[in-house]
């Protein structure tokens, strides 16, 4: 059978290249010495039968199996440590024979998929193109994912129902972009108070307290009644300025509160516009400007106040002496006029003679709800519309549009005119079709070296998550992006410093660090009563601002896991046990030399998304750290091997269960990789708090602290945490800090993992075997200047991987 396998390899792979034939001849002796004992047709350990291993490397699944085989041998995972292992020379020969064949096979497969804009890119593009604000993400189906990212071409399909949604969204977007009046509506201003709001008479003296100066005081995080202020509402959608006046009541330190929005509409979201704090003393005013949808009302919620219900019920709210939040007034102004008419209006109508139609009764124009009507005057519509179609198509398609590009839309426009539609209606039909076309919905990147406008689009969707701005388009039109090696780096630096790069920060960390799943689990209220929405929002802000700080300061890759600073607000600092932080918003905070914080691995957001809300799993967290931070990809359990060790008799702890798991030859190699980081992170609970003991709802001692935020503590002190372990290379660590220090030493490993994720996100395809040599070159080049994270971004956009498809 093994001889037949050898001949089969020679026959099937001979069509790939001469190198393939050479490699198969060399591999069979290697397999006979080190592999067949466990991986032939009779044993098939780990589900691998080398006798039946497919050899058609044009098949992606087959190629993946061979790459997995290559990696396990190259990294020393196989043969297992209790078996005779090949010498370094023999392993080198194995790599030299297999590597070029795998590279050639992967090179033939990559870069062929036409990538659709994912729903966030689509929303950004539509809004930036037309100068509007339309929530398209919530209306479109969730995008497929590959390699942790939701912008990978192979995972982004499209259906007939989705095309219908694009048609509806394009129609709505044009409606929003086209001005219906000749001047913007003036902003209105309204001041409201809780003392005079609807229902105040029911709440004052019960849930609310009226202070001597008339301010209404909240003593707890609000459930019912909420902090909704009906009279402070948005009459129209748009940007609004909100001013809140108040102070910290009966408190010697600031009181934090959130300003959000709420509505009576079913299934509507409740956005948080920002977090603020009031100092004790005289009233102060905080101001924010934010988008509010029509019908939304301001909602104010205090944060972090202890629950005084039992004292209020006993003594009455007027006699309660605890801290509270006093609100004197709320002023709302808006919608604040922005660009009028919108960018989209200019794209559609500039150069056309669009006139207001006079009403039959001129007095109608003075009426409050008068809506003017318009018409486009043209003696030759077919000629007049061509510049408009070209202008709009060039902007929408992210490249100069040719006569050939706009020809189908000119035919559509003319067809609508022939049916009796007016100029504007016919034009809107053609533009709606453009916004549903492949040129708009997809990134048109021809195989091979990318042209200037394709490079501009790739760079912009990477770092600004939308279509290129005018400066980047000008660079593309000059031909500099494809000819000047420094041009892409210069533009990348500019885009990283622009406000729109916040989209990159959010989208990349949402995928890379899995922050999009921050709400996937709800921590058990009895085990983790300190958890609240403010803490969760603070978790996200910490990770995102930390990543931005790393890029801004070009800090080295060790900061991915170890740092002498963190981005904290008061809520997070209290959660982490770090004193001296009073800001309600995250700010840079220096850490003491003995702090366990610093780096992504100890951030509460990461620790929450890698747990299930009730307990932690060293396996889940170990896989997470390996894949997201270390760039290692443990294989799933072999066929027939469940996630839990099939024979765990005698095991009493999770550590013992995993030790038995590792005794299985099928599981040993992967668990030697997975378990160490998982054990190290056992010192952190499911919401990111440090722990020396697990929490229990059963027997155990009571903790010294009786309250967690505004809630009573019910949990008990459970068994002690053991965070010790041993790395794959045999180095021991006693706990998380020693583990962190060992990992931080290997900057090339961290840099390689990071830039691989970065290039995957930037190009919209997963990195493969043939990309490894250039990724290694990028890492080596960054090492010359200290492995800076911003340097890695700039080296990535300068690479052949980024500049080619």
Descriptive terms for the model:
805 residues; flat; alpha+beta; 6 domains; 42% helix; four-stranded antiparallel β-sheet; Jelly Rolls; six-stranded antiparallel β-sheet
Describe this structure in words.
By secondary structure, this protein is α+β, with helices and mostly antiparallel strands. Helix content is 42%, strand content 14%. It has six domains: 2-109, no CATH class; 118-184 and 340-444, no CATH class; 188-334, Galactose-binding domain-like (Jelly Rolls, Sandwich), CATH 2.60.120; 446-498; 515-745, no CATH class; 748-803. The strands form eight sheets. Strands 2, 3, 4, 6, 9 and 11 form a six-stranded antiparallel β-sheet that branches. The chain has a four-stranded antiparallel β-sheet with strand order 5-10-7-8, with no helix packed on it. The longest helix is centred in the N-terminal third of the chain and has 22 residues, at 88-109. Mean pLDDT is 88; it is low at 1-22 and 644-651.
Strands, count: 22
Structural class of the secondary elements? alpha+beta
Number of domains: 6
Count, helices: 29
Note the gap between the termini.
Answer: 41 Å
Residues in β-strands, percent: 5-15%
Stretches with pLDDT under 50, minimum 5 residues: 1-22, 644-651
**Approximate helicity band:** 40-55%
**Shape, per Cα inertia axes:** flat
Can you summarize the main beta sheet? Answer: 6 strands, antiparallel
CA-based gyration radius: 31 Å
């Amino acid at each position: 059978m093994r001889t037949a396998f050898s001949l089969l390899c020679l026959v099937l792979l001979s069509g790939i290249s001469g190198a393939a034939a050479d490699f198969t001849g060399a591999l069979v002796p290697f397999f006979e010495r080190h592999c067949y004992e466990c991986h032939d047709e009779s044993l098939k350990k780990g589900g691998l039968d080398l006798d039946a291993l497919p050899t058609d490397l044009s098949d992606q699944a087959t190629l993946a199996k061979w790459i997995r085989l290559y990696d396990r041998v190259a990294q020393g995972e196989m043969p297992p440590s209790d078996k005779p292992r090949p010498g370094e020379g023999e392993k080198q020969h194995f790599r030299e024979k297999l590597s070029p064949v795998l590279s050639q096979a992967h090179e033939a497969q990559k870069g062929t998929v036409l990538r659709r804009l994912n729903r966030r890119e689509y929303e950004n593009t539509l809004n930036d193109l037309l100068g509007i604000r339309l929530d398209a993400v919530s209306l479109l189906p969730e995008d497929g994912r590959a390699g942790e990212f939701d912008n990978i071409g192979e995972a982004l399909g499209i259906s007939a129902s989705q095309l219908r949604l694009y048609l509806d969204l394009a129609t709505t977007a044009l409606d929003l972009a086209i001005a219906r009046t000749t001047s913007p509506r003036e902003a209105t201003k309204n001041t409201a108070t809780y003392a005079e709001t609807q229902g105040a008479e029911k709440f004052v003296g019960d849930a609310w307290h009226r202070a001597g100066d008339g301010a209404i005081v909240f003593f707890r995080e609000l459930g019912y009644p909420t902090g909704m202020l009906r009279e402070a509402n948005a009459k129209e959608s748009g940007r609004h300025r909100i001013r809140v006046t108040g102070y910290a009541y009966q408190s010697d330190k600031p009181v934090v509160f959130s300003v959000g929005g709420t509505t009576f509409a079913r299934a509507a979201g409740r956005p948080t516009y920002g977090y603020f704090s009031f100092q004790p003393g005289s009233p102060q005013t905080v101001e924010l400007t934010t988008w509010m949808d029509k019908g939304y009302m301001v909602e104010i919620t205090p944060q972090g106040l202890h629950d005084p219900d039992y004292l209020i019920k006993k003594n009455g709210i007027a006699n309660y002496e605890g801290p509270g939040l006093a609100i004197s007034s709320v002023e709302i102004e808006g919608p604040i006029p922005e660009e009028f008419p919108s960018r989209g209006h200019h794209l559609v109508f500039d150069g056309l003679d669009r006139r207001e139609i006079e009403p039959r009764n001129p007095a109608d124009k003075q009426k409050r709800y008068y809506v003017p009507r318009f018409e486009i005057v043209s003696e030759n519509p077919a000629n007049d519309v061509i510049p408009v179609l070209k202008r709009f198509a060039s902007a929408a398609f992210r490249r100069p549009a040719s006569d050939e590009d706009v020809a189908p839309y000119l035919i559509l426009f003319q067809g609508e005119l022939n049916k009796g539609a007016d100029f504007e209606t016919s034009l809107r039909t053609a533009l709606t079709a453009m916004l549903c076309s492949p040129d708009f919905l997809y990134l048109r990147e021809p195989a091979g070296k990318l042209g200037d406008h394709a490079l501009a689009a790739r760079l912009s969707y990477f770092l600004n998550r939308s279509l290129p701005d005018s400066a980047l388009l000008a660079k593309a039109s000059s031909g500099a992006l494809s000819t000047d090696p420094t041009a892409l780096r210069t533009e990348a630096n500019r885009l990283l410093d622009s406000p729109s790069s916040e989209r990159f920060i959010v989208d990349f960390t949402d995928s890379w660090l899995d922050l999009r799943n921050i709400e996937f689990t709800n921590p058990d209220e009895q085990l983790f009563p300190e958890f609240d929405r403010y803490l969760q929002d603070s978790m996200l802000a910490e990770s995102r601002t930390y990543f931005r700080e790393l890029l801004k300061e070009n800090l080295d890759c060790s900061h991915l896991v170890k740092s002498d600073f963190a981005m904290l607000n008061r809520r997070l600092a209290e959660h982490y046990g770090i004193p001296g932080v009073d800001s309600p918003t995250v700010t840079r905070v220096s850490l003491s030399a003995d702090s366990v914080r610093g780096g992504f691995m100890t951030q509460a957001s990461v620790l929450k998304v890698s747990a299930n809300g009730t307990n932690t799993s060293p396996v889940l967290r170990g896989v997470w750290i390996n894949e997201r931070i270390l760039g290692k990809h443990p294989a799933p359990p072999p066929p027939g091997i469940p996630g839990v060790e099939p024979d765990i008799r005698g095991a009493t702890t999770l550590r013992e269960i995993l030790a038995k798991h590792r005794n299985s030859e099928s599981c040993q190699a992967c668990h030697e990789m997975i378990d160490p980081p998982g054990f190290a992170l056992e010192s952190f609970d499911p919401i990111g708090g440090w722990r020396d003991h697990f929490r229990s709802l059963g027997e155990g001692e009571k903790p010294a602290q009786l309250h967690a935020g505004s809630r009573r503590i019910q949990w008990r002190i459970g068994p002690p945490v053991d965070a010790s372990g041993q790395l794959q290379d045999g180095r021991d660590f006693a706990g998380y800090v020693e583990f962190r220090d060992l990992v931080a030493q290997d900057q090339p490993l961290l840099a390689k993992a990071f830039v691989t994720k970065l290039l995957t996100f930037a190009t919209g395809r997963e990195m493969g075997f043939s990309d490894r040599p250039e990724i290694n070159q990028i890492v080596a080049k960054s090492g010359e200047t200290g492995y800076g994270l911003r340097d890695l971004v700039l080296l990535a956009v300068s690479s052949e991987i980024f500049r080619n498809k």
